[in-house]
Amino acid sequence: MLNIEHISFSYGKKQVLQDISFDVAPGEIVAVVGANGAGKTTLLRILAFVLLQDAGNVTLDGVDPLLRPMQYRRWIGYLSERCPLYEEMTVLQFLTYRLRLRGERALRERRRLKGALESCGLEWVSKKAIRTLSSGYKKRVGLADALMMHPRVLLLDDPLADLDVDRRIKIGATLTALSAHSAVILAGHEISDLLQWCTRFVVLKDGRVDALYRVAEHERAELERILIKALCESDEGGQE
Q1: pTM, to two decimals
Q2: Separation of alpha carbons 50 and 16, rounded Å
Q3: What is the pLDDT of residues 113-171, one digit of tens each?
Q4: Could you please report the per-residue DSSP string of 71-136?
Q5: DSSP letters of 155-176?
Q6: Distance from CA of residue 77 to its chain's centroid?
């Protein structure tokens, strides 16, 4: 269980997040949505322990990243919005390097790589240099990196960007299968796609939780209308 309790964060004098609280359990796929500047990316960075909150606590199965950062990070899979990659490496070289950096056992290496490449549709480009790939394929490489270790919590910032409809459907199926033993939290804008497989939506507005929706408790067309409206509302001067 990932617990987020009263998280606040500021960039200088600009407060970006204010008193954010919710929890996510294995079996859930939770989408964090809101207008540009609502604080989605900042929240995911805090959950990934890339940024340190000004106030509040985050714990994963009772582990506080401030006290046990290595263990916490090992349990997290994170795909950032810009997806930094070593572009001179091939896809296979990069993913192998990332596995070894995490200390994965050699006996598991081949299975991990095979599963990640298949899940993200990268088999046929595995020997290509990352710099030669399209932005959509680069996004898939970043997603494969986040998935490889079967994390307890998977954090994805805009994972469907630059992907075609067929690949979005396959990514949705992959995340649904992964959620059987992991919690998934993602930020995105593709409401219609997200409604196909997300179980809950957290709506941010002006850095606060404006609403929480369980998909099973709402008629889909009406919920889609509400979420699209929240996504389009202006957040002047906001910063993600």
Answers
A1: 0.89
A2: 16
A3: 998 999 888 999 999 999 999 988 998 999 999 988 889 999 999 998 878 888 888 88
A4: HHHHTEEEE-SS----TTSBHHHHHHHHHHHTT--HHHHHHHHHHHHHHTT-GGGTTSBGGGS-HH
A5: EEESTTTT--HHHHHHHHHHHH
A6: 8
